[in-house]
Automatic annotation (TrEMBL):
Subcellular location(s) per record: Membrane
Gene Ontology MF terms: ABC-type transporter activity
Keyword rRNA-binding appears in the UniProt entry: no
Name of this protein: ABC-2 type transport system permease protein
Pfam families assigned to the protein according to its UniProt record, in alphabetical order: ABC2_membrane_3
ABC-2 type transporter transmembrane domain: residues covered: 58-255
Annotated transmembrane regions: 25-44, 56-77, 98-124, 136-157, 169-191, 237-259
Span of the signal peptide: none
Alphabetical UniProt keywords: Membrane, Transmembrane, Transmembrane helix
Membrane topology: Multi-pass membrane protein
Amino acid sequence: MRTDVLHAVRLARIDLTMLGRNQTALFNVVLLPLLIGWMYTTLAPEQSIEGVPADLFILTGLSGMMLGFVVFVNLVNSFTARREELVLKRLRGGQSSSVAIFGGAGLSAFALYAFQTVLLSVWISRLGDGGMPSNIPLMLLTGVLGVAVFALIAAAFSGITRNAELAQISVLPVLLVVIIGSPVMGPLSVFPEPLQIVSKLIPTTPVTEIMRTAYLGRDFIGDGGGTLTVAEQWIEALPSLGVLVVWVGVAALLARWLFRWDPRHG
């Protein structure tokens, strides 16, 4: 177990080093979600949403959408390219176990996601009505579950993606659903009914609502909208956390079924 952890940390460090050398990937993974957030706030109406300024409402919910970029797109590209270059096969045949390989990928993705969340928090704190997060442990747990879900979904999608070039296309449907279906610019109640159904089924919705609730200390999960204590935030978030745990199980089954270690031929 200790060896797997050490190997996972080593692989995560290598992943981050390689990403840092790829300026295009670094922009797409780290800066593009924040740019979209800036565009959202620019398009937002000059009014409050559920009792908070529109820009504050949007930015505190941006963490859910960021999972689509920093975890899903990043890891689909990484898994697919390394599979076709036989890197995964060599790693698995060497000292690294499957647990270490997936753990390293997930750890690097979580480090990037945490870095993005910190940048977002700094941005929010500079707003007139911003401030520091109300419940950091709840945000941390939600982030871990969200990264786990999308890392496993990325592993599954890499299995059905023929090569690294096609990975740029295969991720688009999921990314589009994440961008449009996440309740970033408004609560679910303002969505058209078909989009409400879609939004409730995707894992970014509980992440978005929990993160917003944990940051602002107000109820954006249920219908109350009132101020919550830290304990009340945990209680309110339990059903949504349960949804994320279910998604982890579903995504794990998909990854086990679809992920490939060997290159695709033909």
